[in-house]
Amino acid sequence: MPIAADLLAIMPFPDIDPIAFSIGPLAIHWYGLAYVAGILLGWAYARRLAADDSLWPGNTSPMTKTQLDDFIVWAALGVVLGGRLGYIFFYDLSAVLRDPIRAVQIWNGGMSFHGGLTGTTIAMIVFARRNAIPIWSLFDIVATVVPFGLFFGRIANFINGELWGRLTDVSWAVVFPTGGPFARHPSQLYEAGLEGIVLLLVLAALVYGMRALKSPGFITGVFVCGYALSRIFVEFFREPDAQLGYLLGTNWLTMGMVLSSPMILLGLWAMLRARRQAALQL
């Protein structure tokens, strides 16, 4: 365990204003721009996938570009509402019960990925049924593009100096303005790399190299399992939320680990189910 003297400033935090720019009294934050960038890039990539019939079962895309355009609003609502409600229930319920107005103060805690995933899943199920789209194919196309949002979201967390890592003396450690005078893991960047870049490339390789979209649900399983493994790994370097701390009297178990662990089993089940369904159709 590094001693306190070793944990003093190693790398200064980059002086980046959380507010990207202002238009009169309206302040535009990097965090909000990150959501916009993730949704727009994901939408553009999803339209490209939907336009390529050769990627899909029967060489026929299960949805049109127009349907994807309509789904953007549903996805955005699912991410934002689910993400905020998830953070409240998983991480901040007692504080919100004491002060209900805190529920709409996104700067107090922010969003939960697991809540956003739940909200988006509900939106996908309802949208697929209303538009006669195969549900697993819609799951797959959304799973393929989610890493864009994860990447930009974690970069925004870093710019905001929030969700920082545990104390460390590694040479790339960062002293965050809100994290005290000690050096910490830039765990936001670890997550941006694993959940964003690595997962995006793995899914793209499966889509274009192995034609995995032809087995509906397989890409979804890989994403869910890949995210869970990445999140659990990074949780060993990330400081737990102050209001929760470590769970069950340990100095390592966090809420992020608890919420992510069932996702591994869910992801494996989705992959096995997709393979079984594909084998039955041969």
From TrEMBL:
Pathway: Protein modification; lipoprotein biosynthesis (diacylglyceryl transfer). PROSITE patterns: LGT (PS01311). GO terms for biological process: lipoprotein biosynthetic process. Keywords: Cell membrane, Lipoprotein, Membrane, Transferase, Transmembrane, Transmembrane helix. It is a multi-pass membrane protein. Pfam families: LGT (PF01790). The keyword Secreted does not apply. It comes from the Bacteria. One of its GO terms (cellular component) is plasma membrane. InterPro entries: Lgt. It is found in: Cell membrane. Catalyzes the transfer of the diacylglyceryl group from phosphatidylglycerol to the sulfhydryl group of the N-terminal cysteine of a prolipoprotein, the first step in the formation of mature lipoproteins. This is Phosphatidylglycerol--prolipoprotein diacylglyceryl transferase. The lineage of its organism: Bacteria, Pseudomonadati, Pseudomonadota, Alphaproteobacteria, Hyphomicrobiales. The gene is lgt.
